[in-house]
Amino acid sequence: MTAVSLYVELKAKPGKEEEVAAFLAGAQSLVAAEPGTIAWFAVRYDKDTFAIFDAFDNEAGRGAHLSGQVAAALMAHAGELLAAAPQIRKADVLADKLPA
């Protein structure tokens, strides 16, 4: 069962909204190569508010993702693209429903 997750809220700088959207869409291929990432979603709430939600079977998977390519690229471009630092929240998963 999925045990832990991350929720990361991102607020784009004015004029950088589409660049953030493109960055997130392009990150999917990097996450696909992470065996410990069980589920990953990049979403857009409104013009400038985005989020990433991902889930892992264990802390090792979550740790590998946090030190992986997507996190590194996001932090490298955060000052250019984001109005504030990413808000990273770790959570324990109480229940899940994933494809078999």
UniProtKB/TrEMBL annotation:
It comes from the Bacteria. Residues 5-69 form the ABM domain. InterPro entries: ABM_dom, Dimeric_a/b-barrel. This is ABM domain-containing protein.
